[in-house]
Amino acid sequence: MSKPQLFPGSPIAEVVADLDRVRRPLRASDGLAVFVDMYRQVTALVGQRVAEGRFDDPAFIEELDVVFAGYFLAVPKAIAAGKPVPKAWDPLIDRRAARLYPLQYALAGMNAHINHDLALAVVETCERRGLDPNRGTVHADFDRINGVLAELVRPIRRGFLEKEVVRAGAPLSPLADLVTNFSMEKARDAAWATTLTLWAVRDLPLVPGSTARALASTVGLVSRQLLVRFDPQD
């Protein structure tokens, strides 16, 4: 696959530049770097597909991409400021130097960013643009991103697994189980269901905050399970 091309000055190109700034000081073995490397590729490809006219409402997708990235970019900002990171991201940051398999970091990052950040980002973007996720082209464009992600995430995930199998010199059944059980499509389906829930309760007193906190805790728990150390011979 050719390297995605971005138009200079586009909102998504600016997100890619922000990701590059986050990545630059990190070692390749850093769990945060593993996720950033993958996320940058996905973001750049989404930007290319927007430029190609693949979406009904490209302005919505561009703004969603910026808002969505902002939830992740808040993580390195919090680290730099010595502040706590969002609970959904806490397991990855806590274990980023644990020398786990890179695929584990990639999956934990996807879990935090898709199962937590994405729903919040869709609701925020819809509110900014005066859109209703239950109407219009919002859901259709959201689903189109699945196809874009599949272009990169499946090969990246397979590449991670193949490298680890070669390194270990034997089948890594626990790692293979992680790959099998984590589905990008199912994660995005769950994110859409969460989006509709958050949208429905957004004007109720106290409910949006408590719902978001419960979501962060649940997502963080899943990430901790993804980041458990295991012996490849188990």
Q: How would you sum up the global shape?
A: globular
What is the number of beta strands? 0
Give the helices and strands as they follow along the chain: HHHHHHHHH
Low-confidence segments, given as residue ranges, are none
Number of helices: 9
Distance between the termini: 35 Å
Strand fraction: under 5%
- Largest sheet, strands/sense/barrel: none
- Number of structurally distinct domains: 1
Average predicted confidence as pLDDT: 88
Compute the CA-based radius of gyration: 18 Å
Helix content: over 70%
The computed structural class is mainly alpha
List its salient traits.
single chain; 234 residues; mainly alpha; 0% strand; DUF5995; DUF5995 family protein
Provide a descriptive summary of the structure in words.
It holds the Pfam family DUF5995. This is DUF5995 family protein. The chain is mainly alpha-helical and 234 residues long. It has helices spanning 11-23, 31-51, 58-80, 90-94, 102-129, 138-168, 173-181, 184-201, 207-226. The chain is globular. It is 72% helix and 0% strand.
Short summary:
With 234 residues, the protein is an all-alpha fold.
Summarize the helices and strands and which ones pair or pack:
Elements (H helix, E strand, L loop, with lengths): L10 H13 L7 H21 L6 H23 L9 H5 L7 H28 L8 H31 L4 H9 L2 H18 L5 H20 L8
Helix pairs in contact: 1-2, 1-3, 2-3, 2-5, 2-6, 3-5, 5-6, 5-8, 5-9, 6-8
InterPro entries: DUF5995
Protein name: DUF5995 family protein
Pfam families: DUF5995
